[in-house]
Amino acid sequence: MDKQAIIQVDTVSKHYGTNNAIKQVSFQVKKGEIFGLIGKTGAGKTTLLELLSGNQILDEGAVKVMGFDMGTEGDKLKEHINIFSQSTSLVDRLTVREALDMFQGFYHQKNNVDGILKQFGLTAYEDKVVRRLSGGLRQRTTLAIAVVNDPSIVFLDEPTTGLDAQAKKEYWAILAALKLQGKTIVIVSHDMTEIQYHCDRVGVMREGSLVACDSPTKLIAELPGGGLTMEAVYMHYAVSNAGGVGV
Ligand SMILES: Nc1ncnc2c1ncn2[C@@H]1O[C@H](COP(=O)(O)OP(=O)(O)OP(=O)(O)O)[C@@H](O)[C@H]1O
């Protein structure tokens, strides 16, 4: 395993019945980077995220996270990773503080809740019921929940979908602060602008395969025929028939 790699994915496959959702995917994520996953609906991004976070069992290959084999030693990682999923309904009826306290109860390793509320700009809302908050504050709350155990790695599945530009900006400012603290972030997004400006490296998924993986700058620079944006990279690798180039 590469010394810098905090996540090592080696020829991983996953199928649901006859549906090959993930096909022989290999890549690594380095410690402290923000790694983006992009691709069309159904390309396999969520499945891959769940395999990396131990929420799905792989069929072939190996995933190592912080040196632990996810297949056999996944339990040892519980304290060190956390995942944001779309289903916030569990916390909807709780106040922000109650939600943080409840999730913190699942872990031995604990982050300071007052510190999290402050860092996430949630102190003024700690007694508010989550479902009554704006979309931006709700997403900030779910991100706050994802760091209650002070994890080394945070997995985020489309956290900024539906947020306005200001809320997205505030969300990414918090992610940048988490990165500065040394945390590694793996994020799925359909917003190519945020992927271009905030991710250190990006993996492009297409029909279960990882068809490109590099920094946004390199992916853009190496586009056949040139390109200026991640939108063009997305169209080339994830959508057009010209895509499908190996990693
Ligand atoms: N629990 C499941 N049971 C059966 N098939 C599934 C399951 N979860 C996902 N799939 C299938 O696996 C493939 C990959 O789905 P996945 O949700 O990982 O894609 P995605 O890239 O995250 O899509 P989206 O952008 O819509 O979230 C799809 O064909 C999907 O229908």
From TrEMBL:
Organism superkingdom: Bacteria
SMART domains: AAA
Keywords of this entry: ATP-binding, Nucleotide-binding, Transport
Any one GO MF annotation of this record: ATP binding
Residue ranges occupied by any ABC transporter domain in the UniProt entry: 7-232
CDD domains, sorted: ABC_DR_subfamily_A
Family, as annotated: Belongs to the ABC transporter superfamily.
PANTHER family per record: ABC TRANSPORTER ATP-BINDING PROTEIN, ABC TRANSPORTER ATP-BINDING PROTEIN NATA
The protein's name in its UniProt record: ABC transporter ATP-binding protein
Source organism: Paenibacillus paeoniae
